[in-house]
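Input:
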Amino acid sequence: MTDTFSPIGRLADHRLALAGGILILMVSLMAVLAPHVAPHDPRQTDMDQSLTAPNRTFPLGTNKLGRCVLSQMIYGARVTLGVGMGVVLVSALVGMILGVVSGYYGGMVDEVIMRLVDVMFALPGILPALIIAGLLGPGIFNLMLALTITAWAGYARIVRSSVLTIKPLPFVESAKALGASHLYIMRVHIIPNCLAPVIVLATFGVARTILAVSALSFLGLGCQTPNFDWGAMLKESLLYMRTAPHLLVCPGLAIMLLVLAFNFLGDGLRDLMDVQANRKQKY
Amino acid sequence: MDEYLLKRMVSSVIAITGVSLLTFLLLFVLPGDPAEMLAISKYGPRDATQAAIDHLIRQEGLDQPVVIQYARWLKGVVSGDMGTSRISGKPVWQEINVRFPATLCLAGTSLVVSLCVGLPLGIVAALQRGTLWDHLATGTSLIGVAIPNFWLGLILILVFGLYLGWLPTFGYGTLPHLVLPAATVGISMAGITARLTRSAVIDVLGQAYIKTARAKGLPGRVILSRHVIKNALIPIVTIAGIQLGHLLEGTVIIEMVFAWPGIGRLLIEAVHNRDVPQIQGCVLYIAIVFCLVNVLIDLLYTRLDPRVRLTDRD
Amino acid sequence: MVLLDIHQLCVRLATRAGMVEANSNINLSIHQDERLGLIGETGCGKSILGHALVGLLPENAVATGKIIYGGRNLLAQPEAALQKIRGRDIAMIFQDPRSSLNPVLTVYEQLMEIYRYRLSVPRNQIRAKTIRLLERVGIDAQRMDDYPHQFSGGMLQRVMIAMAIAFQPPLLVADEITKGLDRPVKWKIVDLIRDVTADRSMLLITHDLTVARALCDRIAVMYAGEIVEINRTESLFNTPAHPYTRGLISALPASGLHPIAGQAPGLTGLPHGCRFHPRCEISEHICSRRHPQLRPLGNDHYLRCS
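Output:
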C-alpha cells in the first residue's frame, strides 16, 4: 500500500496485512462460536428494553423489539462472512476452470466462454446480481446463487490471461513434447501458476461480496429476518435512525472494518506474490 | 483503427444481446406463471379469470416458444416500441426517458466530485510519498473504498439532514437535493480514484524518462505537467472506465436510499413488481449506455497513448 | 586544467540487506577538453558515479565527499542550484534510450523543451534550431514529429545525444550509450560521439573496452565500487598494471576470450583487504589483510595494488 523503500514502510505494510488477517480470524472464530460468545439470544425480544442505547447489559444497545444488537451482529457475522466466502470460493473455482479451459484450448471454446464473460460484464457491478436476486426472490440461497452467477466471470478473465502467458513458455512445450496429456499439463503446470492472481483477486472478492451482500440485503433482496445479516440490520434501522442511531452505526461500522481487513490482507498478499516489485529505477 | 472499432462494436452487440436474452429467459424460469401475473396486474386479482388469462395469452403471444417471444420483443424494440409497463401502463420507453435526466445529473455530478476529490488526493499522495500526507491520503482512500456507500448515505442523511437539518434527505428538484446523494456516490468513489491515481503517478515517477527530464534541468512544474501527468492520464483514464461501472452501480443503490427518481430506482422497483417489459427495457438501456461509454473510453485511450494508435505511419 | 574534481566520494545505498557502499572513496579528476573513460563490470558502481555528478542519485542514496565544479561542491548544492547546472554545465546521456524517452511526446517536443524552458530561445527560432540539432546528430528532420516507439534503438540514442549537446555543455556524461546496440550501429554512435565531443570534456561510462579505447584519452578502471587503476589509454592497454585490468583485456575476443576466474563480489559481501584478491592470480598473503590505496606512479598513472 505505501510501497516506500524504507524498512519502516515495508514493515507497516506487513503489519496492516497481518492486522487484517487477525481481524478476519477473530470474526470467523466469533461467528463459529456464536452461541458461546453472544451475550444474549439474538431472537429474544423484550419490549421493555426497546431501542435502548448501548449500556452494560446490552453493549451495543437494542432494537425496536428489544433484541440485543451485539448478539444479532455476532450471529449476523455468520451470514455475512459465510455468504461472502462461500460465493467467492465457488465462483473462483468455476471461473478458474473455465478460464483455464478457455485459455488452453482456444478456438471456439475460447470464443464462447469469452462471449459469456462479456455478457456478464455488460451490466455494471452489482446490477446483474441485483436483478437475478430480485427475480428469484428473497433468501440466502437465492442471494448466493445470484452473486456466484455474476462473479465467476472476473476470475475466468484473469485466469485466461494468465494461461495465455504461460502456455507458450518452454516448460509447457517440453511437457507436451514428452507426451503429457492435456489434463495433466493443465493440472500440474498451468493451474499452479495461475493460483497467485486468483488468490489475490479472491481476497478482494470477499470484500466486494460482503459489500454486495450488505447492499442487496439492505434493499430487501437478500437475507430476511431471522437470518440477521448486517445489511438486513441496516434496513431495519431505517425507521428509528434518528432516535436510535446506534442501530445504524454499529452494523455499518462492522461491515466497513471487515471489508478493510480483507482489503489489507489482499494488498499484503499481492505484494507478497509480486516478484517484480514496483521499483523500476535502474542504476 | 476502424477494424478494431468494428470488432469492439460487434462484441458489444453480442454482449448486449446476450444480456437482454438472458434476462428474458430468466423471467421465464421464475416461479409464478407470467400470464397469470400479467392478468393479475392488469385486471386485478378478482377479475383475473381463466378467460381473461387465456385472452391475454393470445393477445401477448405468451403461448409461443420463448425464442419467438424474444424475437417479437426485439422487433418491437428496433421499431421503437419497448412495450408497456405492467405497473404504470405507460410505455416503457417513456418511463425510462423521464427518469434518465435524473440519473445523468446524479452520475455526472458524482463523477465530478469523485475526480475533484480523488485525483488531487492521489497526486499529492504520490508526490509526497512516504510522508504523513501520503499516509493520510492513502488512509482516507482506503476507508472510502471499504465503506458501504448506502451506509455512508444514511450517515450523511442522519448528520446533515436529520440532526443539522441543513439539507433535504430525499427527493429531487433543487440543488440542495443533489448535494447529499452526489456527495455519497462521489466520496465513496473518490477513494478508489485516489488509490489508483496514486499508484499510476508513482509508477510514472519511477520511469527512466522522468530522470531524463530532470537531467535536462527542466523546472518541476514543467516535468509534472508535460511528463508526469500526460503519462499518468493513460492509466487514470483506464481507471475512469472501470469506475464508470462503479458509478452506475453506486447511483442505482443511492437512488433507492435518497428516493431519487432515476433509472436505477425504476429498475429496482420493476424487479420488485415483476414488471417484465420494464425490466427488459431498463436492462437493455443500461447495457447500451454502459457499452457506449466504454467504447468512448477506449477511443479516448488511443488518443492519449500514441503507442496504441493503430493508424501507423511506419 | 581541471574541470571537475571528485574528492573522496562515497555513495551508500539503503537496501533490504542493509547499507551498501556503491562507491568507495573515489578520487578522480576530469580535465578540460579531455575524454575520460570509466570502465568496469556491471554492478561495479560506475553508473552511480555518473548519477552522482548530476545529482540524480536514487532516493535511498547517501553521498559524502566532494564533487568540485566551478568552485562549488555539487554535493552541497540545493536542488534549485543543481537544476540550473544540469544540462547547461553537465549533460548526461542515459542508457536504454527506449525507456529514457517520454512515449507520449514526439521527438520534436522533447527536444524543443530544452530551447524553450532552459535556453530561452525566442519562439520563432525554436523550430529551426531543433531541425539543425537533429541534422547535427544525423536524424532526418522530417521524422521529428514521430514518437519514440517509431524509431530504432540507434536513432533513439542519437536523440538522447542531441538532447545533451543542445546545451553545448562543457562536460558530457555518457552512461553506457552503446549498450544493446548492434555492432555497425554501435560504431556509428561512437563516431558521432567523437565528433560532438571534439570541443568539450566527456566522462564515458562503459563496460565495452573497445569503445573506451577508441574514444578516450585516459581510462579509469573500476572494480567493486573502487577505482583500481587510472592511466592514459594506450599505456593502459599496452602495459596494464592491475591484475583486474589485465584480466579485462585478456577477456576480450581479440585477446582470446580468457575470462577472469570467479565472480565479482556483491557489494554486501566484500572481501577483506584488497577487494580483488580472491580472483587475483598474483595475490599474496598481504592482499587479504591490507586494503591497498590508490597510489600515483607518475605519468598520470595511478594504481591500487599492494
